[in-house]
Design brief:
Shape: elongated
Radius of gyration: 24 Å
Distance between the termini: 19 Å
Largest sheet: 7 strands, mixed
Strand content: 15-25%
Order of helices and strands: EHEEEHHEEHEEEEHEEEEEHEHHHEEEEH
Helix content: 25-40%
Length: 387
């Protein structure tokens, strides 16, 4: 079988690439090959199923990896900062944190929007893996079928969340062609910590400021929800902090549970003492009762200043993460030294890459999907120029 473009991976970047190609040239013979049972499955789950697809605060500082420098050209050019508005057939709205969602808060509707443009215009293989990419762009499928393409776009995702068929096996396809893959880490993921001081806090959610230290140096700071678990901590603040520490050792988290002035906290504790509160309840009403007791038990003192300090600097040593199965995204990927500024392989002409498979990852809050859509569009434009 011969075709114009083979897109390997039917996720966010692959679908965006296909839509952009069809819009530019409706006569293109395009094939999408997806290892899963349906297209856009991971996209349909994004933002807890509500579809957080981008952020109004996109900037280079929100991206990591060896390809972070190219994000400026690919994803942050003026015509790409709001590309999602033209990609989907729905009204988009931003929340107070800058996260952009479809107004209906239904991620599956985003997939439907893309599929309406592609139905009947592309050939789709589901439950099919690519076993080899030849230097002549001969694509061998797990079924044994061969497809010959003028252009190939590899956007099969990273290693995170293997339930979406992103198990990292796609990296091997290009390693055979001479590409290197940087070290891989789970990112946007729950953290395992020491649990000595939080054993009785499972399920408690608290809004706090989290600062991450590596070898004594502050590497990141954010504010949001922290959820205590039997293995450590989860929640939006933890997901937000995890990209900054994915590749670091000796990490400690400092949790500040109280945003108010020290004097106000100390005064309240002293007043409770006057009214005869037991030591364990000196943070009652100021913090969740169980959390307050944990803080006081840890500092082992009824001194108001010591308690205040402990509530503003509750430290946890990070022992690791829950791993790739629970991570939202992969840190690392195809080494950008083997990729041109057009996201084309330096080893195989007309082989392109888009999305998470490259060594580019972003912060929590829609940044990774923005990269996926933008890189898919960017590659499509590069192909159109060559047709």
């Amino acid at each position: 079988m011969n075709c114009d473009v083979v897109i390997i991976g039917g996720g966010a970047s692959g679908l965006a690439c296909a839509v952009r190609l069809i819009r530019q040239n409706a006569n293109l013979n395009i094939v999408i090959i997806e290892a899963g049972e349906r297209l856009g499955k991971k996209l349909a789950s994004t933002g807890n199923g509500q579809g957080n697809i981008t952020n109004v605060n996109i900037s280079p500082d929100c991206y990591f990896g060896g390809g972070a420098d190219i994000v400026d050209k690919v994803a942050l050019a003026p015509d790409r900062l709001r590309l999602e508005e033209g990609l989907f057939h729905c009204v988009l709205q931003a929340d107070q944190t800058g996260r952009v969602y479809p107004a209906g808060k239904q991620a599956s509707a985003l997939v439907d929007s893309l599929m309406y443009e592609l139905r009947g215009k592309v050939k789709i293989y589901l439950n099919t893996k690519v076993t080899e990419i030849g230097k002549n762009l001969k694509i061998t499928l797990s079924s044994g079928e061969n497809i010959y393409a003028k252009f190939v776009v590899l956007c099969a995702g990273g290693k995170a969340q293997k339930q979406f068929k992103t198990d990292g096996s796609a990296y091997a396809l290009v390693q055979k062609l001479g590409h290197n893959v940087t070290e891989l880490y789970p990112s946007l993921v729950q953290l395992k910590t020491d649990t000595v001081f939080i054993r009785n806090l499972k399920g408690i959610r608290v809004d706090c400021t989290v600062t991450a230290f590596s070898d004594g140096q502050s590497v990141a700071k954010t504010r949001g929800d922290v959820i205590f678990t039997d293995y450590g901590v989860s929640g939006n603040a933890i997901f937000s902090i995890s990209p900054y520490i994915a590749d670091k050792q000796g990490v400690t988290l400092s949790l500040n549970f109280l945003q108010c002035d020290d004097g106000e906290i100390i005064k309240d504790i002293e007043k409770k003492k006057e009214f005869g509160y037991p030591e364990s309840e000196l943070l009652s009403g100021t913090l969740h009762n169980q959390l307050g007791r944990a803080v006081i038990k840890r500092c082992g003192s009824a001194d108001a200043e010591i308690i205040c300090s402990a509530a503003k600097n509750f430290t946890l040593n990070v022992a690791g993460t829950l791993g790739f199965d629970y991570a939202q995204v992969t840190r690392g990927g195809i080494d950008m030294n083997g990729v041109t500024d057009e996201l084309e392989s330096k080893f195989v002409k007309n082989l392109f890459f888009a999305g998470e498979i490259l060594d580019v990852d972003g912060c929590c809050g829609g940044y990774n999907l923005h990269w996926a859509f933008a890189s898919g569009f960017f590659v499509a434009d590069s192909i159109i120029k060559r047709l």
